[in-house]
Amino acid sequence: MIELLQSLPLVASWGLFAGCALVIGVLGTRLTRVVDDLADRTGLGEAIAGAVLLGMATSLSGIVLSVSAALADRPELAMSNALGGIAVQTLFLTIADVVHRRANLEHAAASLGNLMQGGLLLCLLALLLVGRFSPEWTLWQVHPITPLLFCGYLFGLHLVRRAESNPMWSPSRTYETRLDEPDSQALQRSLGSLWLAFVLMAAVLGVTGWLLERSATVIAEETGLSQVAVGVLLTSIATSLPELVTSIAAVRRGALTLAVAGIIGGNAFDTLFAAVSDIAYRGGSIYHAVPDEVSLWVALALLMTGILITGLLRRQERGPGGIGFESVAIIGCYTAGVVMVVFGGGGGRTG
Question: CA-CA distances (angstroms) from residue 102 to 7, 76, 149?
């Protein structure tokens, strides 16, 4: 099976890539409904359910792709897929912002949970940069930053949960603020059937991620594109499609907190792509095996997340064209990153 996928012609690889992207997009829409209902049935709330359940499930295809690439000694593809995914998923929030025409999405979905998740994401991204520029020390070919990423993520989730159960700060309520309130229809659904649907869809997303890695490898080899360009411009977008469709679906359902939490929480989980890729990569520290072109996307993700948190704090009710200043700035940052990947020459030192 693996040999067959590796020998696919370019046209068939593009077809497999497009088919996987379609599956990811369709399942993403259905997954939103299931997670929104699980948030109500379990009492987790939209912020935690979006960050953990929705963020984790929609990230499975991406994490499988990054691990597969790292195992196959393609660290640039593994890391650029992870970091490009964080950037493009933040960009997707601007699309959800456009869809929510009543007010700026960051105004309507402001919550303590989302702000805490944003702070956690900043810390995890900063850890990635620490790993990149720290000494190349490893234990069993694993860099010390890797266990710190896992510990930081779990501790961060603990803090988010505690902050939501015993808040010391809350955003001011306005006419456009949408509160996280249980849906009566969701409470009628069987909890067992909801969990079963969630697990099955998450499993399918994981398989599509593995298939995407195989097709992306052929595309990179046949077209001459660098692994960084394929990771940032192709696989990261394809594996991030669930975040786009789930965010838009959540906005249309009125689950605005879930829409924002799914992106920010998913991005925090996506930083663990680097951690598991470091474990899978047997050539030493994966943080030192990639060029500065990849590290650039950590910096861009930090900048875009900082802008997003500023928007959540500023809570501009309505900006020019119906979107806030943060959406305009995020679009500008991502566009600049793509321009640098396409026209920057693909260079940069490695370690």
Answer: 50, 41, 38
Q: Spell out the domain ranges in the chain.
A: 8-168+191-343
> Could you tell me how many helices (H) and strands (E) the chain has, helices first?
15, 0
- 347 φ/ψ angles, rounded to the nearest 5 degrees: -90, -155
DSSP string, 137-149: --BTTB-THHHHH
Residue 298 exposed, middle or buried by CB count within 10 Å (0-12, 13-18, 19+): buried
The residue with greater pLDDT, 285 or 19, is 285
Q: Which of 23, 49, 44, 81 is nearest to 301 (CA)?
A: 81
* Domain spanning 8-168+191-343, CATH architecture: Up-down Bundle (1.20)
CB 174, CB 107: distance < 8 Å = yes
What is the pLDDT confidence band of residue 113, given thresholds at 50, 70 and 90? confident
Cα-Cα-Cα-Cα dihedral of 70, 75, 80, 83, to 10°?
Answer: 70
Distance CA 213, CA 78 (A): 9
In the chain, the percentage of residues whose pLDDT exceeds 90 is 19
DSSP designation for 175: T
Contact 10/222 with Cβ under 8 angstroms?
yes
- Distance from C-alpha of 308 to C-alpha of 29, rounded to nearest angstrom: 24
pTM of the predicted structure, to 2 decimals: 0.76
Q: Give the rounded distance of the alpha carbon of 285 from its chain centre.
A: 23
DSSP states of 231-300: IIIIIHHHHTHHHHHHHHHHHHHT-HHHHHHHHHHHHHHHHHHHHHHHHH--SS-GGGSS-HHHHHHHHH
Name the 3-class secondary structure at 2: helix
- Each residue of 273-324: pLDDT tens digit? 899 999 999 889 999 998 888 888 999 999 999 998 888 887 666 655 566 7
